[in-house]
Amino acid sequence: MSTTANDRSTVEAAREKAPEGQRVAVVTGAARGIGEAIAQRLGRDGLHVIVADLPSMQEGVASTVEAITSAGGAATAAETDVTEEASVQALVETAVEAGGHLDVFVANAGIAQVQELIDYDAADFQKILDVNVTGVFNSYRQAARQMIAQGHGGKIIGAASIVAFRPFALLGPYSATKWAVRGLTQAAAMEWAEHGITVNAYGPGIVGTAMWDLIDEKLAAKHGQQRGEALEENARSIHLGRVSVPEDVAAMVSYLAGPDSDYVTGQTMLVDGGIQFS
């Protein structure tokens, strides 16, 4: 389902425009998990955050918006489907309507499926490509068009993963999509540097999320383990000694969205506690 900037039934617009000088950020897939943590962190950093997710995820979107505004920040809820470029274009228009400009776009929306390659359904394979690759392509391109039109650059940030460097078993298609995000990020950084736009990605490692719970479940079933054993086994490779939390990733995105990263572009920054060294 796509939206238009004028569709008040599907977009909760900000009551007031962002104050003069306040930066505006879009975060897709922000209803829960890592996206929620990123949106809340950028809100604490002082940005007006457009909290975007699918129509079916609007309860979570409202919760994220409430958390940001309760903490004294500014946020606007929006529906979007990143697989539809017109929907992403409307999302960018919503950001401009709310804040007058677009400074940061975090293409966080993504899906994962835990399945052996031999059993992977062709329709599921196409779906993960649509969301994780086409969705990032749509997000990067629409964000860049707006930033180029504004004439003062910006920050585009995508969701990669440790599997963009080191694929995991049972995550074959997911791994392929994150390699694609890493490559697209590098190419976009090359093309848009002349416009003052930096393009980077973040690569979470093993995070305490529903996806890793499912990986643990599948691996345990395959190897005859108890629940939690497979995750614990994988976590032994983390040099810092703990599974990460969404806030670890949000801290990296805060850096990539801020001025301290102005001379960083084309990078996929691992946030994995020291599993993979690049």
From TrEMBL:
Note down the stretches annotated as region Disordered: 1-20
An example molecular function term from Gene Ontology annotations: quinone binding
Task: Provide the alphabetized UniProt keywords.
Answer: Oxidoreductase
Coiled-coil segments: none
Q: For this chain's UniProt record, which GO biological process terms are given?
A: fatty acid biosynthetic process
Residue ranges annotated as compositionally biased, kind Basic and acidic residues, are 9-20
Which InterPro entries would you find in this protein's record? NAD(P)-bd_dom_sf, Sc_DH/Rdtase_CS, SDR_fam
UniProt similarity note: Belongs to the short-chain dehydrogenases/reductases (SDR) family.
Q: What is this protein called?
A: Diacetyl reductase
Tell me the classification of the organism that encodes this protein.
Bacteria, Bacillati, Actinomycetota, Actinomycetes, Micrococcales
